[in-house]
Amino acid sequence: TWTQLHDIVQVPKASEPRHRNFTKLPELDPFHHNPYCRFYDPYINDTFSKGPGDWTAGYGVYPVVHDRKFRVLNRKSDTEHAPTVDMLAFHDCLIPGQEYLFSARIRLWDPDQPRLVRTPCAFDGETNCLQLYFATRTASGVRLGRKKHQETQTDTYHNYEWQDFHAKIKFTEKELDPTNTFHILQLRGPQARYNIDLEEVTLSLPHVSLVPDPDNVCGHNLIMNGDAEGDRINPYPMEVSGGRLSIFKFTSTGNQAFRVRYRQKNEDALVYFMDAPNCITTGSRYRVSARVYGMTSKVRVQVVIKYRIFFRDGTSRGYEVAECDPSRFDWQPCKATFAVVDDIDPFEIDRVRFWFETTNAPTADFLVDDFFVELAKPAKSGILVPAEGIDGHWDEGVEVLITSHTTNMEDRQLRRLVHPPVPVEGGLVRLELDDYIVFPVTKQHDEGLFPVEVALLNRNIRFFSPKEESEQHQLLGGHFMVLRTPNVDQHVEGIEFVNFGQQGELGRYPIHIHLCKNAYSVIAKNLVRSSNQRCVVIHGSHNTTISENVAFDTFGHCFITEDGGEFDNKFIRNLGSNQKISKFIVREGESDHTDPSTFWSANPNNEWVGNIAAGSEGSGFWLELLDFVRLPSALLETSLGIMPKRLPLTRFLDNIAHSNYRHGLRMYPHGLNPSTTAKFENFVSYKNRLDGLFFRNMENTVVEGGILADNRVQADFDGKGDTVVMDGTRLIGSTARFREIVQLQNLVGGGYHKDQVIGMELHSFAKNIAKNGLEVRNVVFEGFDQTGSDFTALVQVDPHSDDVWSGVFDFWATFESITIRNNTIPYHFDFSKALASSYKGVYVVDLDSSMKPPSSDATGTSTAIADSPDMRVFMDPTKCSPVEGRGYLYCKNTCIRSITFAVDPGQDVDVRLKIHRVQDGSIYHYEGTQDFLIDDDLDRHYHAMTDMERPLFFSAPLPSGEYKAMFVRGSSNTPIWPIHVETRLEPALCSGSFGSNDVELTVPPPKNSECTELIRNGDLEQSNYWAPFWLQTETHIELARGRGIRFSNALTDTDQTSPLGSLGQYVDVRCLSRGETYLIQAWVRFSENDNFFTCDGGSPSCPDLRLKMFKQEDEVGVNTTEDIIAVSTQYASPVRAWNLLHGIITIDERLEQATRAFVYVQRQRPGIKLYVDNMSMTRLDNQCSELVFNGNLDEDTTVFWEHFNGDFDLRNVQGNNALVLKQRTSSFSSITQRMRTGCMVKGARYLAKARVRLYDRGMNMQCNPTVPAGGKACPRMRIRAFTNYGYGSQPTVGYPSTFTGNTDHGWTSDGWHTITEVLTAGEVEENAGQLILYINGPGEEYDIMVDDVSITPLEEDCSQLILNGDAEAGDTARLWRLFLKSENSTIAVINTGDGNQAFKMTGREYYNDGMAQFIDGGCMKLGTQWKVEAQMKLVSKESGDYVSCIPDEKNTFNSCPAVHLSTIKDGTRVDDGRYFMTNEDPWNVSKFNKYETEFTVTRNVAWGEQYIIGFRNFNSDWDLIIDDISIKPVAA
């Protein structure tokens, strides 16, 4: 279906173009009766040496001849008083329609006017201009007059100045009628007062030397009279488009030249109309030459030669031929060879115009001489191609495509075969074409590397969709689809699809394999022509072979895999040409309308072998890979979890791209990041207008072999690249054939790379600085010294990126085993753009000095560095040589490595990094840089500078040595700390570089004041113009002057499109010490559609506080983990539409190890305009005497308190503040707080207290402490330990509640219940990252009120283990609990009548029911002895009378209460035993009886963690009154 062009040959054409309308001299009659008619001599040839001759002055004015000059004196009173000649003697020799030449030397003069003043023609351009006028009178007396030529306003004569007057004139049959009574010529027109002088007047046929030879029209020189020697006055056939043309004669040599004078603009030109336009033929080469002479001292005049072909239909095409060397009063040459590149029918050419114009001197005179154009090489119409697949298959009449041989895809040529292929030697066939072809590139040029292709544009089976007449439907053709047929072997071969595809309609393509999954199909040897939308589309299908298809003149991408879910398809030897930009796209996100590519894919897991991308308005090959598969393919099973840009590249081999308007191979912007190495093998990319190869975001990629040539940039590595290798590739700046084509076809400005030719372009920045950005080895550079471009470089180091400016160059590149051929350029790198960009740390490592300048004797590792102070300061000057004009030094035997410190972007502008080399004391202060989006918009620039993700970089490129680093302000020597520092160490690119321990960073210890408050400028009052220290994510920030609390400043955001938009600051990581607790507060308010509203914090769309922490895991700054910690956020009661947003955070081990931490307010949903004021992060005192914050709510806010599944507010009750939790949704709806963490110690005991109330529709209710949860259950306190609590990326581990603080029995006289409990901390609490206190329990229908919450440590007191044993702690049974909790049991505090209080346990239902208390287990040492004492009374439940027990009895219904000691470990309770009353005194029912017993701590007891002492095991019909309970050690 296609092949490559081997050579072109001359084949005589059946019909050559006929030459029309060229100037011919008439055939003369040597026997004519009038002697004037027998020869080509002039008809008028007057020098007035013998008087006026046939000349008069007309109408009564008599001339004189003075000094051999004919003069009309000032007696003339009319414009028709003019020099007049009678044509009677020769008028019968004149031929109607024949061109004649009139010439004269003329002077106009008015004695009353200054010399050289311009004549009146300059002012009106018509009535007062000099004319050549013809007049005659017919036999009937009718006077005929016609102006044959008139001086123009731009070439007016000057007073007393001799000028040449010349004209081409013709006569009509009526004018030359022999019956006319007279024929005269006049020079008339100037005002009557002007006298006219004449000399050297001629009228003649053009000289034979000035017209083409009829027998050789396209002879040696196509330009007649190009040397200006044809006549002394008349420059025929030259003309001007503006100004005045004359013959200029050098008196010293006698040489004549054409002079263009009185010009007003550059386009006022010397013009030549070719007399034989058919001599210009498509594909022929022409040689043009001339000399030019600038006649001004102001500038060196730049002249260019152009030509334009005019067609019979009124259209034309223009080209620039040559650029002459600039001239200032000297002759300069113009030489060039050009070819007619357009496909032109010579029969349609009407005329051809050449002209000389200036580019820089619009009013300067200039001379032209020796203008010469000749045929250098005739066009050819035969081609040689390999016979295989052609002979016997292509036949007479078929149409073929010859692909473009330039950077313009439109230079492709369409021809037909006029004969069947003719076999010739060498396994070739000759194809005779129906027209000449422009000289293409063949196998005979440039080592046979870049031949154009010849493709067959016919098939025997043709699917044709007629073009719609209406413009609306012209892009809607047919379409062919194989739809949802998995595992079916479809075979589509040898079909011609014409006008298929429906532009803008999804799924309507010429050939479409649609959602066939495993298609196992073949699409082969088809032709897609004039497609309205794409060519061959594989969509949601796999295992399809697309081979040897041809596509020509199509819209949009051509051969494509559509969604990214297509695997294992093979594109083999397909050819596409002339892919055009689509007007309409099928859906959002498509790129057919911006960069139509011949081969486009969304999945690399396919094969491309031997394909040709021969010209598109976009790129040849484009892998546009995303992190996801697009719909609908994303719904296929095979697409689940697929990330196309991270898949392996199956095969990319022997592909070719040329003549594309953008890139040969584009891997931009998303790139390819496979886990296995992706290879681009033997890729050939040439004559593309931008880049031969364009990489960005590439990783783990090898370009192996191949050739990149004649592109503007051969290989563009645009940054964000890691481990990219180019190995064994040839980079050719300009091939010999391309230079020839540029000259022949005048490609300047039409696709030729006039501005620059670059071998390789390196941009910043790397994806992963721990890896090499680029390794270049075994690469050949050649052809860079004759590019003809304004700028040429083998390697251009240009940190600039089209979208990002980072300020630090980190695209590490190494070169090794480089070959440079045929290069006379004294430099190999160019760093000039690096210097201009103000980038820091720019250098390239030359591992074996193969890229050294020609004058260098370097061996081993060397480095090319930017010629900037930051690079020079630590270099050895004896090793570094400047490369003039290219912005770099080449430092031989030098290895450099960079270390970069990334700090808080909210820093002051005068922060510097001071580096001090230990060995010699050298010092340099490095300025910080920051990356941001390239944009001229100052608001966007400020947005980039305040982006928390864009750190301030300080980069130091250093040779080997030992260094000390510190951050300072300005040039100070006092170290400061820039909030955080992350060190990024470049990999060692070469041996001998410094190590990680060779740069020591000074970290000054933080002052106490620096850690007390971590938010800087929290009140926004530091400036009235901007917000120092404040940063943002996914929004834009600005200072809102006067919009804060009490008309102070506030911070707001100007972009509310993202729900993640945030405002915040980095905080000093030195202060984040484990165990420290910080209170974060911010006053915020919100508006939506300019309406302010408050937020109660119960909605997930309410803004909240967060802390984002980062931890650098290695020395090179590659592995950085991050977590978003959701700070427990609550809203205090709003004040004038302001909400107090607050929460606490305790620094745990992870936060302590953070290398940076960002505290911020996050919007949570789009559309909300956020205002922030008075933000703070305040360190709380580290006293562990109280673990609950704001427990008594005396701060008049809910600060520190949170709620879960409900809403709360602050309420004043009996003169005190209390929290009320409302709108509860379950018994677990809670009032919560993040307690002070880091205080609890394993084994230590803590006293927890609170006052609580239960409300039902506003009424205070008595709760039931025996109900565990739901209904009227009393509120309970729970503490739960967590690790990784709130870390976004870490699994949160929540441990079971280690403690339940139940409500005490009874309530106080003012209507409160109390919670009083003792907690023994375990290992979980001691190591917890977060301890959260919950108060919940009652059913959701009840509100909970809380006040006076406290958790305090209990000092160990082994002299008395019982707390509140005398019941005097209050009017509730604090710290005492029911044992086994009979449903109706209770413990009350009663008055005993003697001013004392005691406990009364009632409602027992079982023998084992009793009351108990947790005691301090730390005192229960093995072998210790303890004495239990109490005062008791027993009361009959039935009668209410006091009853007695029998101390001596055990385990009977008459037994006295026994003491039970229970041991708990790991959640398991073991009863160690019962201890019965040892007091032998009889029981006295009328008073308290002393209970007394002793026990010894046995091994079964000593192993426990918690201990419960209880009084139980007595008659269930009895109530117990008990007082003065104690457990004390027995004295040794």
Q: Can you describe what's shown?
A:
The structure is a single chain. This protein is mainly β and 1532 residues long. β71 (911-917) and β72 (923-927) form a beta hairpin. It is elongated, with a radius of gyration of 51 Å.
Question: From the helix content, strand content and strand pairing, which structural class follows?
Answer: mainly beta
Mean pLDDT: 87
DSSP strand content: 35-45%
- What characteristic shape results from the CA principal axes? elongated
Poorly predicted regions are 933-941
Distance N to C terminus: 112 Å
Percent in helix: under 10%
Physical arrangement of strands within the biggest beta sheet: 30-33-36-39-42-45-48-51-54-57-60-64
Number of helices: 9
Number of β-strand runs: 114
Largest sheet: 12 strands, parallel
Question: What is the radius of gyration computed over CA atoms, rounded to a whole number of angstroms?
Answer: 51 Å
List the helices and strands and how they pair.
Blueprint: E1 2-4, E2 7-9, E3 44-46, E4 55-56, E5 64-66, E6 69-72, E7 84-86, E8 100-109, H1 121-124, E9 131-137, E10 143-150, E11 162-169, E12 182-188, E13 195-204, E14 238-240, E15 244-249, E16 256-261, E17 270-274, E18 285-295, E19 303-311, E20 316-323, E21 331-339, E22 349-358, E23 365-377, E24 380-386, E25 399-402, E26 413-416, E27 422-424, E28 428-437, E29 453-456, E30 461-464, E31 481-483, E32 491-493, E33 495-498, E34 511-518, E35 522-524, E36 527-529, E37 536-542, E38 545-547, E39 550-555, E40 559-561, E41 570-572, E42 575-580, E43 599-601, E44 607-609, E45 612-613, E46 621-623, E47 651-653, E48 656-658, E49 665-667, E50 678-681, E51 684-686, E52 691-695, E53 699-704, E54 707-709, E55 713-717, E56 722-727, E57 730-732, H2 736-745, E58 757-762, E59 774-777, E60 780-782, E61 792-797, E62 804-805, E63 813-816, E64 819-821, E65 829-830, H3 832-837, E66 843-846, E67 862-866, H4 869-872, E68 880-883, E69 888-891, E70 896-903, E71 911-917, E72 923-927, E73 929-930, E74 932-933, H5 938-945, E75 952-959, ...
Parallel strand pairs: 30-33, 31-34, 32-35, 33-36, 34-37, 35-38, 36-39, 37-40, 38-41, 39-42, 40-43, 41-44, 42-45, 43-46, 44-47, 45-48, 46-49, 48-51, 49-52, 50-53, 51-54, 52-55, 53-56, 54-57, 55-58, 56-59, 57-60, 58-61, 59-63, 60-64, 61-65, 63-66, 76-78
Antiparallel strand pairs: 1-29, 2-24, 3-13, 4-7, 5-6, 6-13, 7-12, 8-11, 8-13, 9-10, 9-12, 14-17, 15-16, 16-23, 17-22, 18-21, 18-23, 19-20, 19-22, 24-28, 25-26, 25-29, 27-28, 62-74, 66-67, 67-69, 68-69, 70-75, 70-77, 71-72, 71-76, 73-75, 79-82, 80-81, 81-90, 82-89, 83-84, 83-88, 83-90, 85-86, ...
